[in-house]
Amino acid sequence: MANGTIAAHGTAEVDFYHVKSKHKGLLAWLLTTDHKRIGIMYLSCMTVFFLTAMTFGVLMRLEMLTPGMTIMTAQTYNSLFTLHGVIMIFLFIIPGIPAVFGNFFLPIQIGAMDVQFPRLNLLSWYLYIIGGGLAIFSLFGGGGWVDTGWTFYVPYSVRTTTNVSLSVFAAFVLGFSSILTGLNFITTIHRLRCPGMTFFRMPLFIWSIYATSWIQVLATPVIGITLVLIILERAFGIGVFDPTLGGDPILYQHLFWIYSHPAVYIMILPAMGVVSEIIPTFARKPIFGYVPIAISSLAIALVGYLVWGHHMFSSGISDTSRVIFSLLTFIVALPSGIKVFNWVATLYKGSIVMSAPMLYAMLFIFIFSIGGLTGLVLGALNTDLHVTDTYYVVAHFHYVMFGGMGIIFFASVHYWFPKMFGKMYNEKMAKVAAIIIGVGFNVLYFPMFIMGYMGMPRRYYDYLPEFQIYHLISTVGSWILVSGILIMIANLLSGLRNGSKASSNPWEGTTLEWTVPSPPPLLNFDKIPTVDHGPYEHPEIARRKEEESK
Amino acid sequence: MDTNNHHDEHNDGHIAEAHHPSYGVNILVWIGLLSLTAVTVAVAGINLGSLALTVALIIATVKSLFVVNFFMHVKFDNKVVKIFIGVCMLIFVIVLILTFFDLTFRF
Amino acid sequence: MSNNVNTAVEEVQEIHMHRDDFGSKMGMWLFLFTEVLLFGGLFILYAAYRYIYPEAFVVASGELDVFMGGINTVILLTSSLTVVLGIVALQKGNKKLCLSFLWITVFCGIVFLVNKYFEWGAKFHHGIYPKGPALQDMSEGEVMYFGLYYVMTGLHGLHIIVGLAFIGFVMWQIKRNILTADNFQRLENAGLYWHLVDIIWIFLFPLFYLIH
Ligand code: HEM
Ligand SMILES: [Cu+2]
């Protein structure tokens, strides 16, 4: 009888892939409310979106191989960089880590069986898919591919005859999805922590997701209404952004960046959280400065609201506000600096295991530091005016966004792959791919700093012959990078098919997800755990400490 | 074993018994709100010059505080809700002020 | 041993199904914040254009009927009161009274929308709408004023409609005894939403109608 109950609930042995559910086949996925399945669904869709946008990026690089027209017209190029930007930003980096790994691991890491609102969680996924679908669909309908750039600046976005309204609506729907995810996570963290899991015993990944969720809830609505205004402007001509009617286009830029600067922290904070998981695991040491890292996540979320004006230095805003925004921008660098120093201090005297996730994390620290330091050049008013709207900016944001969130996304897939799929990948191939990606990345983007500094403007499909050599190197870099990415994906897929079975704790991690089987059962835990120590202490270490103090 | 989380917010999830419901207080609040509406209309008739906007906003804020504290129960609610509301309003005010650093010196 | 495991599973199930009123209220509040900031963006625009065109806003505001706006304010405040009274009634176990109070709220909400319809209709009739003949002859500040007026009151009206649907849904659940004297969080959430819509109007009213 007793055993019968267990089997019926399927909590004891069966993992969540094989648990019996009401629905069969694809429906068992499409109608699931299990946070793990939803996480996997995000991962698979996101991969498709990422590869699409990556292809656009490579095509753009191919166009830039030689001056003049190489493979496409100027109009096509304009559409490509717009779509590349829109897909990368709204479908990959903003939702990325929270939607995939937050969904999968947030409940497990705090000792819960699911998120607070599982059905709402599924709704978020559907909104994500609908938004993505609309973005793709906007290619085929109406007046052609959008050509405004991902920023949709007025007045051009109101005048152009391309399919702006639909793309903007897609971004609006995606924003909604993001908001609901954030709301769900905040409530989950407040309500579903297991006994003993105080706020300061939560893994740092959870702290970063918590801070991120707050930005999602409090910043996204602003872009929502701004995008709605663009649609209304196009449909009815209400005039609020139209200079011919007395509107002020700069106010559009304000509203846009009031969201979009905090949004860069939506992109990077979760990545920083993952780094704070990977480093203690593979340095075999508790993280250095747990509390400062945790608090700095919240600090970044807050000060992130103060600096949006640095995107508008050359837009014509008042001098006073330019100086203020420049000053504030430097303050934002502090909490990020705290984190980098803490990571490095954690490595110090650790017994480091240079596994694939760790390799990606190191790559991240290197690339992200370059991105961050060049960010200071852009944050300083006088130097920014020199390099604004050049390839310097393109290089900078790829270093922070791709090098920050993108690389850590790859790291997360490797770090949690055994847990998510119950299989191991080929470690050697994973490292080879990581190295190729690291090399390709720098060959692709570093020349952009140089040509940007020399004055090569962004968003052009043509250039003066003197930039040829840099563009050539950069394009070759894109090929190297893409080979690395393809090797990585192939390696993961082959691990999925033929990999050896993963144990429940292959990395000797200390957070709760490593205490459950790989892959986890439907409700994650047989019994809700009770926690009596911090996230990065081996239980034995904690016990020994206690004995010493007695 | 102690299965409680020892957080302020972590009662057993049922908040029905938090305070005693009553009709009277709410009706009083409603009367207050109606009077304030009358006041704000009346004051708008007087020529206060540049103070007019300030007065109107103060009255509207007081009205909102009534609605939030009584109709929305925040006065009797958990500390967490109050902090949340504070954070939300703080962000809005910060953003408004920073925008005006541009507008004030541009127009 | 097997007995032990059995209780564990039962416990697990029980916790999983556990109702969490405070959690759902927290979720609702977070959602309200997103509404606040959604309107917040518009309030920022309003502040900006009122700062840029102070005189034009005074002139344009003269087109609105303070009396209509005042009546609508009273209606909304009353509808908010009846939601609260409805919650109290349900808490005291008086289902019938609760439903009557909520009917008043629904009625008020509809009257508000009808009033709004006539207000907008009158403006349209005079050609005051985006790209309308009368508006095109007005100054830039007035165009901004009316652009914002339509967007903000329109969005607010949309929220009234959503609020009404929410309350209607909750009433249906009360009728079917899904929501009861000790399980009324969803009614409270509907109430929270409705009060927020009320608060937004509390600001819209003086900002659009009462500029002299
Ligand atoms: C996979 C390899 C990638 C390549 C080859 C690539 C290449 C490019 C190129 C050539 C541009 C256009 C520069 C210009 O003309 O102004 C661009 C723009 C951009 N990229 Fe990438 N990129 C890649 C990955 C990414 C990733 C991972 C992200 C985000 C995390 C990203 C975000 C953006 C954004 C936001 C823009 C600006 C679009 C705009 O101007 O509106 N890219 N990229
Ligand atoms: Cu920024």
Throw out a few tags for this protein:
heterotrimer, A: 550 residues, mainly alpha, Cytochrome C Oxidase, Chain A, C: 212 residues, Four Helix Bundle (Hemerythrin (Met), subunit A), 8 helices, 84% helix, elongated, disordered N terminus, binds protoporphyrin IX containing FE, binds copper (II) ion
What is shown here, in short?
Chain A is an all-alpha fold. Helices cover 68% and strands 0% of the residues of chain A. Chain A has a single domain, classed as Cytochrome C Oxidase, Chain A (Up-down Bundle).
In helices, the fraction of residues of chain B equals 55-70%
Structural class of chain B: mainly alpha
Order of helices and strands of chain B: HHH
Q: What is the number of helical segments of chain B per DSSP (H or I, 4+ residues)?
A: 3
Share of residues in strands of chain A? under 5%
The ligands bound in this entry are: protoporphyrin IX containing FE, copper (II) ion
Radius of gyration of chain B equals: 20 Å
Strand content of chain B: under 5%
Q: How many E-type strands of chain B? A: 0
Biggest sheet features of chain B: none
The largest chain-to-chain contact, stated as pair and per-chain residue counts, equals: B-C, 51 and 54 residues
Distance between the termini of chain A: 45 Å
What is the level-2 CATH architecture name of chain A? Up-down Bundle
Helix and strand topology:
The complex is a heterotrimer of chains A (550), B (107) and C (212).
Chain A: H1 2-9, H2 25-30, H3 35-63, H4 74-93, H5 96-109, H6 118-137, H7 156-159, H8 164-191, H9 204-236, H10 249-283, H11 290-303, H12 319-347, H13 356-379, H14 381-387, H15 391-421, H16 427-454, H17 468-498, H18 539-549
Helix pairs in contact in A: 3-4, 3-5, 3-6, 3-17, 5-8, 5-9, 5-15, 6-8, 8-9, 9-10, 9-11, 10-12, 10-15, 11-12, 12-13, 13-15, 13-16, 15-16, 16-17
Chain B: H1 23-45, H2 51-71, H3 79-106
Chain C: H1 2-17, H2 21-52, H3 54-61, H4 66-91, H5 95-125, H6 133-136, H7 140-175, H8 185-209
Structure, explained:
Chain A is an all-alpha fold. Chain A is 68% helix and 0% strand. Chain A is globular and about 75 Å long. The model of chain A is unreliable at 1-11 (pLDDT under 50). Chain B is an all-alpha fold. Chain B has three helices and no strands. Chain B has helices at 23-45, 51-71, 79-106. In chain B, helix 1 packs antiparallel against helix 2. The radius of gyration of chain B is 20 Å and the shape is flat. Residues 1-12 of chain B have low confidence and may be disordered. With 212 residues, chain C is mainly alpha-helical. Chain C has one domain (2-209): Up-down Bundle (Four Helix Bundle (Hemerythrin (Met), subunit A)), CATH 1.20.120.80. In chain C, 84% of the residues lie in helices and 0% in strands. Chain C has eight helices and no strands. In chain C, helix 5 (95-125) runs antiparallel to helix 7 (140-175). The radius of gyration of chain C is 22 Å and the shape is elongated. The N and C termini of chain C lie far apart (80 Å). The relative contact order of chain C is 0.15. Classes of the chains: A mainly alpha (550), B mainly alpha (107), C mainly alpha (212). Chains in contact: A-B, A-C, B-C. At the B-C interface, helix 1, helix 2 and helix 3 of B face helix 2, helix 4 and helix 8 of C. Bound molecules: protoporphyrin IX containing FE and copper (II) ion. Copper (II) ion is lined by residues 261, 264, 310-311 of chain A. Protoporphyrin IX containing FE (HEM) binds next to helix 3, helix 4, helix 15 and helix 17 of chain A.
